[in-house]
Amino acid sequence: MAQHKITLLPGDGIGPEVTASVVSIIECAGVDVEWEKYFVGAEAISRFGDPLPADVLESILRNKVALKGPVTTPIGTGFSSINVRLRKTLDLYANLRPVKSMPNIITRFEDVDIIVVRENTEDLYSGLEHEVVPGVVESLKIITEKASTRIARFAFEYARTHGRKRVTAVHKANIMKLSDGLFLQCFRNVAKEYPNIEADDKIVDNLCMQMVMNPQQFDILLLENLYGDIVSDLAAGLVGGLGVVAGANIGEAGAVFEAVHGSAPDIAGQNKANPLALLKSAVLMLHHIGETGAAKRVDDAIVKVLDSGAEHRTRDIGGIGSTADFTIAMCETLRRGTRAED
Ligand code: NAI
């Protein structure tokens, strides 16, 4: 029996290409995984009549871990986002996005190393909207003490277990005194339980300005759902964009690791997709399942491969290589590392 059972959702578009790459790199890193593979999205509708069949959810609840490729969401019509459904159904309340500068990915900034923690379940994403009278609509922003406290605790626990020094809560409590005020108050209450970790806060507009002026000053950022959505993409842009940044959605019932980019239909099936973002998500997953040695080997190999020539990097990050070129270079680097240790 394999050491780990993990649910695998390859998704569509470039999803199957990048997940196949990451699965083989994890194997080259020597991690023993049995993958339980499921269709989701349009493929699952044509086969089973549901974009997110019940056995997918059961598999994630059983294994407690999933690796997921991007899934196309039809615009305007068709099924609603399976990403949102997954987060809501499994109560994956914490969205984690580490944003770190990498070698040979040229950006305006060096040495960025920020962890963005986003609350995933409420705020303006509650979907509570209605028309009051023709021409007037209302969207409800829901903030609760329970959700604000557990996400603050998640951020401080992350800081404690990963040797981080500061958590900055981001808000607009000067204007939304009740809702953002509650989020901020919960943050301050939880901060008292962690006297060794610095706690401060910033108003979201000021934070955005400072992120593009001097991003190196930030350590962990804690945000409500909507500010988190916007600021996490801004942060990704500081280190090379969505093609290189990892993501995870974590709750008590399980954790789903996925890249933040979409299904990139414009390059699907052409061996051009960059697996790096999903691979970085898989590194987070390896840490999560206790494979810290393998996580470090893969992280070190990424640095070496990115540094080893344009033919091993895909075009979106200035290389001339293909998905397969990157994958082969990663596996060779990992195998060389293992032989050197023997
Ligand atoms: P996208 O992220 O798929 O593509 C934007 C641009 O980035 C495209 O030019 C694409 O070629 C490029 N790109 C994205 N990932 C890349 C990679 N790994 N390697 C190289 N180039 C890459 O965003 P778009 O076009 O807005 O969305 C396409 C579909 O993906 C939509 O149906 C959307 O709903 C879905 N989507 C799914 C997500 C998920 O399942 N987690 C997240 C975001 C979007």
What can you see in these coordinates?
With 342 residues, the protein is of the alpha/beta class. It folds into two domains: 1-96 and 241-342, 3-Layer(aba) Sandwich (Isopropylmalate Dehydrogenase), CATH 3.40.718.10; 108-112 and 119-238, Isopropylmalate Dehydrogenase. Helices cover 41% and strands 18% of the residues. The chain contains eleven helices and twelve strands. The protein has helices spanning 15-28, 42-48, 54-63, 82-90, 145-161, 179-191, 204-213, 225-238, 276-288, 292-306, 323-341, and strands spanning 4-9, 33-37, 65-68, 94-100, 113-119, 129-133, 136-139, 166-171, 198-203, 220-223, 248-250, 255-258. The strands form two sheets. Strands 2-1-3-12-11-4-5-10-8-9 form a ten-stranded mixed sheet, with helices on both faces. The chain has a two-stranded antiparallel ribbon with strand order 6-7. Helix 6 (179-191) links the parallel strand 8 and strand 9 (198-203). Helix 1 (15-28) packs across helix 9, helix 1 runs parallel beside helix 11 (323-341) and helix 5 packs parallel to helix 6 (179-191). The chain is globular. The mean pLDDT is 94. It binds 1,4-dihydronicotinamide adenine dinucleotide. 1,4-dihydronicotinamide adenine dinucleotide is lined by residues 14, 18, 70-73, 83, 242-243, 258, 261-264, 266-267, 273-274, 277, 316.
